[in-house]
Specification:
- This protein has 229 residues and is an all-alpha fold.
- It has 7 helices and no strands.
Amino acid sequence: MSAPSMTRTPSQDRMDTKTIVSLAMLTGIAYIVMLLSKMMPSVMFLDFDFKDVIICIGGFTFGPFAAAIISILVAFIEMITISTTGPIGFVMNALATCAFCCTASFLYKKMHSKMGAVIGLACGVICLVAVMLLWNYLITPLYMTGFSRADVAALLPTLFLPFNLAKGGMNMAATLLLYPPVVGALRRSGVVPPSQSHQGKKFSAGFLLFSLALLATFVVFALVLAGVI
């Protein structure tokens, strides 16, 4: 009995190359979106960041491991280019993005439907808030001068919780709005492989209105936190 062949076919090699190119492209886009997000109003020293939308699209398409790779790459590039918080900021950045995007991508992979996307993203928001409450309490006093651990603890319910809720909510709504058209365009161009599921292909008016209402709600919430309105 002959041993099974381990030789990869040309089509498998091409698919791997396409995946690598797609992840690199999404990493570049996420970095650009992060730079553009810097123009938004901030809440004290916290910046709203929409790069998680792009990373979630990558995670929904290629899985939670891909979301983790893009999250770490973008956080690292940000650290060596524009960040002033060094390795600590890199860790916080990567933790926040992975908490949201990997959770959402993992659950969407298990429930590949519109409802699965909503549930996954909602759980991602909850995970983001919980993880960042813990890590802000542990790490923020290490690099924020003038803030003791007691000061940070006092800010957890009044600053960190509402900020991460608003940030996660906006990213959730924007992902629901952008994922179907963006991935559809990538599939038509051959960058992303065709979907293996026929669920959730129609972007209904009701789902669109739900996503828009969710986005509007969290944008207003964020503007209130930033003191704009």
